[in-house]
Amino acid sequence: MSDLGEKCGVFGVYGKGMEAARLTFFGLYALQHRGQESSGIATSNGETIFCHKKMGLVAQAFAEKDIQRLVGHIAVGHNRYSTSKSSQLKHSQPTHIEDVGLTLVHNGNIPSTTLLENFLASKNIAYKTLSDSEMIAEAIAVHMREGSTLEDAVPKTFPLLTGAFSILLMDKHNLVAIRDNYGIRPLSIGTLNGGFVFSSETCAFHPIGAEELRDVAPGEMIIVNESGMRSVQIAMGIQKLDIFEFVYFARPDSVLLGKSVYGVRKNFGIELAKEFPLDADVIIPVPETAMPVAIGYSQALGIPLETGLIKNRYIHRTFIQPEQHIREQGVKIKLTPLPEVIKGKKVVVIDDSIVRGTTSRQIVQMLFEAGAKEVNFLVSSPPVRFPDFYGIDTPTQKELIGAQKTPEEIREYLGATRLHFLSYDGLIRATGLHPDMFCTSCFTGEYPIDIKERTSEIHSLPTAKLF
Known about the structure:
It is a single chain. With 467 residues, the protein is α+β, with helices and mostly antiparallel strands. The chain has 2 domains: 235 residues, Glutamine Phosphoribosylpyrophosphate, subunit 1, domain 1 (4-Layer Sandwich), CATH 3.60.20.10; 172 residues, Rossmann fold (3-Layer(aba) Sandwich), CATH 3.40.50. It is built from 16 helices and 25 strands. The strands form 7 sheets. Strands 4-3-5-2-11-10-12 form a 7-stranded antiparallel β-sheet. Strands 6-7-8-9-13-14 form a 6-stranded antiparallel β-sheet. The chain has a 4-stranded parallel β-sheet with strand order 18-21-22-24, sandwiched between helices. α5 crosses α6 and α8 runs antiparallel to α15. The longest helix is centred in the middle third of the chain and has 15 residues. The radius of gyration is 23 Å and the shape is globular.
């Protein structure tokens, strides 16, 4: 799944007497999987806003001295994933508008910024060099300059936000959380020592000792200040969580829509076993996301599960360009096969999805080179046929192998003995939830939030090709 990147994780803390920055640091550490490009934290002590952000992983971006300088009982933090076009510190978050004391962190994407652009232009604010997150912050700041409080400025700006967003905002006295009215990206609330914590995923609560309270509802605004926590429904909410959170992005120890991510992924494997049972010698997951899927498939069919691919856990996004020979090694830098597990055996390899297909092809080749008698490739999601516009960095549709080839053509390209994608119905069954609760646009091409002018970037596919 090196072909996909999740755009960001957010974390926030409000609690008198708490070291908000330190808690946020460990929260971001737990959310590192959602972004490895840059990391940042802003805090407030009720009088001054402090901010520190830097390129790299959380541990690289912060030293003890940086945390000590971020004083205050309010904090918002951000891990960023971005495309190479915007790999610059100036686009890292938190975004801070100094004159109004506004700070913002954002997970998601606004595919159509026309409304924001028109509004900012009407206020004589230059926007052409701004990211979608920066435009949101500037629009809210306009209302604050005109006399609105943060709490009042957010609902006034909300109608301009055509897209997916889980956003935390902070001024000197308040922490505010908002979520788009379809709840595409996750955002949860926890409690800690009488204060409140907000996180893109619940997995970040346990390391700091916070207790999960509930999700921020679609279309809801949460305000936390010295008076406590209040909720305002500022738009009609219809839950449409991006199902890719279950497939790939979320950590297995997170809970989404009341369901264990680990449990759902294990169910993916059970559904695969029902749809495509194989007579094989060994099951090998592609680490890490596919591990619970492989466990489910193994237990359902009684086929041994082995660690046949070893992942170098310390390879993250790097700014060091690999030497040409290393670059040609491709996925071999990250994964190493174990011949003693593979040689002479009929292998079932399980992965969470196929995007471009290049990584999957290299994995199949590696397993055959390690002596596999058969390499059967099973995928715990349907073919990815449409690009995402809601915060996942997907290739263009012409680069998606599922949009260009039939499953049999994909099998031939991979060089696999057999290939099976989990059906759409099997995917939904595994969640135990109603299909209407999900955004499945990458599989179906149905976008719950109007992507407006970006519609020209996709083309429809024959219904018969879908699953």
